[in-house]
């Protein structure tokens, strides 16, 4: 299985329409890959809070249309990163879109853990409430987004739902890059699953991005890591390695659930 992570540069000087078309072109260039991944909120930038409301779009809006066609043109499974979604009956959401090779929407995931504490995304967007997996040829992918990476219980839930590959688009800042790589490897090791973590390059809203998109195998080995700038990271995966790892080192079978709370 060939996976290509498009670490697109997000810059305030480029229009969203231009970046949308450029991203579509980059997706088409990955024809021959099985899975292509874009980062979180690459249209606006994950830290461009003031743009969220103005640039929010319905689920089947401009990004949906452009990415559906790009997936179909390239004949690939496309995780199109996330968009600021405007729900006509509710708040904004940070929503990821996954398209099949015929351009049909296969899954949508609303980010559960919103970053910002008492500002930014945490107050501007609603929280998703559902775990989402999508069946790919030969494997199942679990969906998460950026800040979700810090919450291991979400990934346990995805593994319990059958995920063998964890796809994590992000707009991770450079100042916390060491956490990005550490957590990506930790999620792979503890869940004995592939982790595909795709970030952005460039600087937007004054926040330099970490880049360094990374692919980690179920044993925690790094199969590929991008640099700081815009690039496409392509890695070959063996879906069978997940079951082999889980059989040879069956740590997941030793989970103990429902422990009693400590007595006070």
Give the ordered list of helices and strands. EHEHHEEEHEEHEHEEEEEEH
- How far is the N terminus from the C terminus? 51 Å
Assign the CATH architecture.
4-Layer Sandwich
- Average of per-residue pLDDT values: 97
Number of strand elements: 14
Order of strands in the sheet with most strands: 5-4-3-2-1-14
Q: Beta-sheet strand percentage?
A: 25-35%
What oligomeric state do the depicted chains represent? single chain
CATH C-level class: Alpha Beta
| Poorly predicted tracts of residues | none
Q: Biggest sheet: strands, sense, closure? A: 6 strands, mixed
Instruction: Give the CATH superfamily.
Output: Carbon-nitrogen hydrolase
Q: Within the CATH hierarchy, at the fold level, what is the topology?
A: Nitrilase/N-carbamoyl-D-aminoacid amidohydrolase
Rg (CA only): 18 Å
Which class best fits the helix and strand makeup?
A: alpha/beta
Keywords: Hydrolase
Protein name: 2-oxoglutaramate amidase
Family: Belongs to the carbon-nitrogen hydrolase superfamily. NIT1/NIT2 family.
Domain CN hydrolase: 1-239
Structural features, described:
- This is 2-oxoglutaramate amidase.
- Residues 1-239 form the CN hydrolase domain.
- GO terms for molecular function: 2-oxoglutaramate amidase activity.
- The chain has helices at residues 16-28, 49-55, 62-74, 121-124, 152-160, 177-191, 240-248, and strands at residues 2-7, 35-37, 77-86, 92-99, 105-110, 133-136, 139-143, 165-169, 194-198, 203-204, 207-208, 214-216, 222-225, 231-236.
- The chain has a single domain (2-251), classed as 4-Layer Sandwich (Nitrilase/N-carbamoyl-D-aminoacid amidohydrolase).
- It is globular and about 50 Å long.
- The strands form 3 sheets. A 6-stranded mixed beta sheet has the order 5-4-3-2-1-14.
- Helix content is 27%, strand content 26%.
- With 264 residues, it is α/β, with parallel strands linked by helices.
- The model has no long low-confidence stretch (mean pLDDT 97).
């Amino acid at each position: 299985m060939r996976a290509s992570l498009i670490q697109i540069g997000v810059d305030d000087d480029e229009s969203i329409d231009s970046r949308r078309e450029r991203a579509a072109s980059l997706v088409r260039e990955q024809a021959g890959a099985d899975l292509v991944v874009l980062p979180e909120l690459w249209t606006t930038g994950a830290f461009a809070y003031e743009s969220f409301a103005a640039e929010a779009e319905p689920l089947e809006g401009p990004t949906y249309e452009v990415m559906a066609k790009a997936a179909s043109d390239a004949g690939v499974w496309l995780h199109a990163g996330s968009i600021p979604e405007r729900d006509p009956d509710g708040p904004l959401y940070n929503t990821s879109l996954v398209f099949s090779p015929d351009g049909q929407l296969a899954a949508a995931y609303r980010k559960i853990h919103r970053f910002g504490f008492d500002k930014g995304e945490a107050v501007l967007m609603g929280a998703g409430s559902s775990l989402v997996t999508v069946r790919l040829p030969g494997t199942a992918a679990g969906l998460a987004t950026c800040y979700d990476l810090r919450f291991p219980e979400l990934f346990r839930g995805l593994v319990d739902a059958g995920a063998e590959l964890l796809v994590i688009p992000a707009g991770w800042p450079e100042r916390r890059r060491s956490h990005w790589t550490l957590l990506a490897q930790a999620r792979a090791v503890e869940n004995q699953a592939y982790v595909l973590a795709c970030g952005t390059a460039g600087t937007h809203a004054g926040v330099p991005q970490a880049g360094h998109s990374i692919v980690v195998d179920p044993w925690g080995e790094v199969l590929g890591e991008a640099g700081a700038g815009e690039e496409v990271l392509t890695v070959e995966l063996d879906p069978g390695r997940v079951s082999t790892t889980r059989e040879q080192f069956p740590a997941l079978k030793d989970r103990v659930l429902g422990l009693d709370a400590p007595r006070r």
